[in-house]
Write a structure and sequence with these properties.
binds magnesium ion, 2 domains, 26% strand, globular, 4-stranded antiparallel β-sheet, alpha/beta, 6-stranded mixed β-sheet, Rossmann fold, binds adenosine-5'-diphosphate, single chain
Length: 247
Amino acid sequence: MTGDAILRAEGITCRFGRFTALRDVSASFPRGALTAVIGPNGAGKSTFFNILSGSIPPTEGRVVYEGRDLARTPQHRYARLGIAKSFQITTVFPSLSVAECVRVACQALVSRYDIWRPRARLTALDDEAAALLDTVGLWDKRARPAGLLAHGEQRALEIAMALAARPRLLLLDEPTAGMSPEETRAMMQLILRLARERTVVLVEHKMKLVMGISDRVLVLHHGEVLAEGTPADIRGDATVRRVYLGQ
Ligand code: ADP
Ligand code: MG
């Protein structure tokens, strides 16, 4: 894939005490592409995700988003920069309805000046929330308390809430964890649809899941980049196959 990178990881090393979880990991995430980060358990995927999304600082190296070094960017600024991640601690509000959760997320992104704007602006918020519910397939469940949704639906709701920020870059860490095969299929379809309109980085343990939908695949193993390329490249890579054998 040609084109520029919206996000770049440059020489990322991450140490926890004496343990090195990531060693000199560099990667480019092309704008508009769906890039999957895969690897066996313990490969360092979540650590890499947490660094890309600003949850933890790298020990060495830097993350560059739209040409900007993110080291000096506090977490709360990420949404305004166009970066959203799913499955952060602020998950769904269990006692709010599904629609209210998304509306709150939409409202959180309205600047404080917009509060003084006319009622039309608030109606627009409702419309926006409705469109997001439709996107993730939760329109029919909009009146339900979020806490009563099935696991897969809660994760879809979290994605709708993440989308409220209208991110240009969406970061997802194992969105199908704990899902049934049916929920997993639905989530993969949703991710594929979302990736048509924005850049997506999808961290996923199960290689098979991402091969059919990704533009690029980055394979981590023991905290290092083992391979990088198109799904076809990765499928044909003997080392990758050896690492995944028996998984
Ligand atoms: P993955 O998501 O690919 O399964 P992780 O990034 O969660 O892998 O973990 C990579 C390695 O780093 C594992 O060996 C894990 O035990 C270790 N690790 C992750 N987070 C910490 C931490 N906060 N402190 C110490 N070790 C950690
Ligand atoms: Mg993980």
